[in-house]
Amino acid sequence: MEITNVSEYEAIAKEKLPKMVYDYYASGAEDQWTLKENRNAFSRILFRPRVLVDVSNIDVTTSVLGFKISMPIMIAPTAMLKMAHPEGECATARAASAAGTIMTLSSWGTSSVEEVAATGPGIRFFQLYVFKDRNVVTQLVRRAERSGFKAIALTVDTPRLGRRESDIKNRFVLPPHLTLKNFEGLDLGQMERTADSGLASYVASQVDRSLNWKDVKWLQTITQLPILVKGVLTAEDAKIAIQAGAAGIIVSNHGARQLDYVPATITALEEVVQAVRGQIPVFVDGGVRRGTDVFKALALGATGVFIGRPVVFSLAADGEAGVRKVLQMLRDEFELTMVLSGCRTLKEITRHHIKTEWDPPRLAPSQGKDMEHLFHERHCMFVRVRPKAASN
Ligand code: GLV
């Protein structure tokens, strides 16, 4: 059967993969409220398309940290991809390169930075978990640098692993034929089977819970690479990230796998964008399944989006070809969204092209003026001035 959208890969992956593996990729934390909300929140944002714009030429290319890419859609770090497909991270890297976009390799890849680099040219970021043993971190960052990775995406929302109940029920553990390849030579490549989630225990024993903003500065003493702080959800932290020298922020709730009942990332995005005031780029991940989602994120101020599960599931279903197809489908849908909303370049996508539930009412209601007033006081940046005639 022909695949016509990104979400269709999930059912195929579910059929193909062992339950323990599918559940690991699919689940969120605890009640999985945020997992559902990451998707639902996109569906509550509507378009305000403009018509009769000459859309015969559309340009979806963009630039991220100075690197020109084919579209504002990049690959998020997801762990242990050889559980999904024998070619795992390498197939994913090849698909990203073929699509002209960026792949982020997880620290917990089942392929190493060197192996991914050996797949050929491509712009790649390295996602970093800071381990208690800082020598391990330093070595890993150096290896990523030497392997040509262009940025570090520092995950900041995981001092402990979120509680994913299916992993506990399944006694999740990395299958014995695989290792966390980046850590293999450091004696940290194996994961012990435990009475609950093997990954949660691994994190508890290896990841540095004392990690704090000073370490973002420390990281800059060991690498020249730009640092993207991944896992920010508030204006407060966005401002600190800038002071700490971040080159960018990824608004992320870790695919809803960490703290449940945080807002959908698309809901948190604008708060961060407002706080950052254009000083550094802001990206978002979480729940992106459609080209319309990409457009909404850009309209709210994101420079680009990262996709996680669609990559994992398409990789499981069809290897490199699956990931290529996901990237192509999202690109096509995004381009179509631009055409149908009257935007020819990414710059032309504005806040006026969408309508969110936190916007003030636009038209008529007699109290509209008061509402708008109130809104202005709270969010002065995003008030739209209505034409005089309509405001009375
Ligand atoms: C890894 O980062 C995970 O969330 O399982």
UniProtKB/TrEMBL annotation:
PROSITE patterns named among the record's database cross-references: FMN_HYDROXY_ACID_DH_1, FMN_HYDROXY_ACID_DH_2
GO cellular component, one term: peroxisome
Cellular localisation: Peroxisome
GO biological process, one term: hydrogen peroxide biosynthetic process
Active site: residue positions: 254
Chain sites annotated for binding FMN: 77-79, 106, 127, 155, 230, 252, 285-289, 308-309
InterPro entries on file: Aldolase_TIM, Alpha-hydoxy_acid_DH_FMN, FMN-dep_DH, FMN_HAD, FMN_hydac_DH_AS
EC code(s) of this entry: 1.1.3.15
GO MF, one example: FMN binding
Coiled-coil residue windows: none
Matches recorded under Pfam families: FMN_dh (PF01070)
Residues annotated for glyoxylate binding in this entry: 24, 129, 164, 254, 257
Keywords attached to this entry: Flavoprotein, FMN, Glycolate pathway, Oxidoreductase, Peroxisome, Photorespiration
Pathway(s) the chain acts in: Photosynthesis; photorespiration; glycine from 2-phosphoglycolate: step 2/3
Cofactor: FMN
Reactions mediated catalytically: glycolate + O2 = glyoxylate + H2O2
Signal peptide boundaries: none
Domain FMN hydroxy acid dehydrogenase, first and last residues per copy: 1-359
Similarity field: Belongs to the FMN-dependent alpha-hydroxy acid dehydrogenase family.
Name of the protein: (S)-2-hydroxy-acid oxidase
Organism encoding this protein: Nepenthes gracilis
